[in-house]
Amino acid sequence: MERFLSTWIVSAVALSVAAWLLGTHMAIGDPSESDATRIVAVLVVALVFTLVNSLVGPIIKVLSLPFIILTLGLALLVINALLLLLTERITDAFDVVFHIDGFWWAVLASIVISVSQSIVGAFVGSRD
Questions:
Q1: Transmembrane ranges (predicted)?
Q2: Which among 2, 36, 53, 70 could bridge 57 via Cys, Cβ 3.0 to 4.6 Å?
């Protein structure tokens, strides 16, 4: 449970960094809403993102293993972008504002999220 919570928080920070860096191409929460409402939106998006990555991600990655090997891992960029777009669809069903401008912006966002997760995860994991 502690690991899930830390992954959720790290994902929230990484998604926030990606939304900040990508500007209008990736949005979480409505800018006209209060900060508290936007923080809740980030936490909901991060929760869905964490669940999608931990439940759907491994299945797709195992099924795509030959393509991942054939492309020397570049297929993982496509898979991560598609998982991010799936997160967008799911959060849309919950009426949470989460928008990415398209596939290539999702690819860029997934790269930013992966790097951010690695950096933040290093700090969270160093408290042992």
A1: 39-56, 63-83, 103-124
A2: 53
